[in-house]
Write a structure and sequence with these properties.
The structure is a single chain. With 395 residues, this protein is an all-alpha fold. The protein has a single domain, classed as Helicase, Ruva Protein, domain 3, CATH 1.10.8.1310. The protein is built from 22 helices and no strands. One of its GO terms (biological process) is endoplasmic reticulum to Golgi vesicle-mediated transport. This is Uu.00g023650.m01.CDS01. It comes from Anthostomella pinea.
Length: 395
């Protein structure tokens, strides 16, 4: 508890210390963010997160992000009945992979920590991920999840980290934590739909590639490839304030910004390589502004590929950010189970179709034989049989 109170105090000090150096515009924006947090006003935070500068500082983010995710950051430790310690819970099946990924974490930031400080952060990151997975054992870990979690670890005080990541996992990035990545791949097909609506020529140029080039960025909320901490924190402001599908519009807008560069490549492999690496000189404020305009002009419901997205997908259950903030972890589990059942049903259908296609000759022979057997027992067959040789020129 002492660690949590020290971290929380640090955020309060950050706000007070920065106030002495604010411009009038920044001071006004800060006051609006603090007021929105006090009122738990998600609509106001949504507007502020998209506006230039976003939520301004980690001190303000530590108050805003929990609200956007649907819990009170001041009440994370106030429950009268303490849950059992996650350390006493059964190991999650993916913990070995978690360890491998955590050992590779904090590559780009923070870049001013000693080795001992980085080792401590990796221990905290491992504990954070393990706690979330053990408390929600139905979730499947994916490589890149640690990139998301490390941003939450750096921004939020300790008491808020696990609740925030748990709600993010169950309610917002749930599609990526299913037993298969098929729903994640289905999401990627919205990118060509958006591109086709706004720039058919560029869409046609890229159509030789499946949009798998976007998988790393969409899976990790861009945290795997963005190298500056200030940039990823800024991106998280808007990704948490907007519906889950908005990240696909951000990626599409980045593709549009790179239009001239992409037309300089004709080989599919080179296009894939180029698109899978984010340029580090992006003007994020312009990208966010234009992605919001792109979303307004071509909303998800107007896209052909939207119809193939499951109604239980996080893309559809987060369309109203306020409604999503009101959902419970149990709601997320129910959506997860619905998606699993849909995936199992799709697999069974695929197996049946594959079996039918593989045995199509045998099935056709049986069908003809059965048809002939029943037709012979009808009066119509007794007319057709004598008539058929005559039509063929027989006697």
């Amino acid at each position: 508890m002492q660690m949590a109170s020290e971290a929380e105090s640090k955020h309060v000090v950050d706000i007070d210390a920065a106030a002495d150096h604010d411009t009038p515009a920044t001071a006004h924006a800060k006051a609006r963010i603090l007021d929105a947090c006090e009122q738990m006003d998600i609509d106001a935070l949504k507007t502020l997160a998209v506006s230039p500068g976003g939520l301004l500082s980690d001190a303000l983010r530590s108050q805003s992000w929990p609200i956007l995710l649907g819990f009170d950051p001041e009440g994370t430790g106030d429950t009268t009945e303490k849950p059992p310690s996650w350390r006493d819970m059964e190991r999650h099946k993916d913990e070995d992979q978690v360890k491998l990924d955590v050992d590779r974490s904090f590559v780009y930031y923070p870049n001013d920590n000693s080795q001992a400080e980085l080792d401590l952060k990796r221990t905290e990151l491992s504990d954070l991920i393990t706690e979330v997975l053990r408390r929600q054992p139905y979730l499947c870990y994916f490589q890149g999840y640690h990139d998301i979690c490390q941003v939450f670890l750096l921004v939020l005080p300790p008491a808020a980290r696990a609740p925030a990541v748990a709600r993010l996992s169950a309610l917002r990035i749930r599609d990526f934590m299913l037993p298969t990545l098929n729903p994640a791949l289905s999401q990627l097909r919205l990118i060509p739909s958006i591109l086709d609506a706004v720039d058919p020529e560029l869409c046609a140029h890229l159509s030789r590639n499946e949009p798998y080039f976007a998988l790393s960025d969409t899976l990790t909320m861009f945290a795997h490839n963005v190298q500056r901490y200030s940039d990823i924190a800024r991106l998280f402001d808007v990704l948490l304030a907007r519906e889950q599908v908005f990240g696909l519009y951000v990626f599409t807008q980045i593709v549009l910004v790179r239009r001239a560069e992409l037309f300089g490549h004709d080989e599919p492999d080179m296009l894939h390589f180029t698109l899978s690496k984010l340029p580090q000189d992006l003007d994020l404020e312009v990208v966010i502004r234009d992605a919001a305009r792109l979303f307004a002009e071509h909303p998800p419901e107007s896209l052909r590929a939207w119809r193939s997205i499951s109604s239980a997908s996080a893309l559809k259950t987060t369309r109203d950010v306020r409604a999503c903030a009101g959902q419970s972890l149990e709601d997320g589990h129910r959506f997860f189970d619905r998606q699993v059942r849909e995936l199992e049903w799709a697999d069974r259908q695929k197996e049946v179709l594959q079996t039918v296609w593989t045995n199509r000759g045998v099935i056709l022979t049986i069908a003809v034989g059965v048809g002939a057997f029943y037709l012979r027992r009808t009066s119509m067959w007794s007319v057709i049989v004598p008539w058929w040789p005559t039509r063929l020129g027989g006697s």
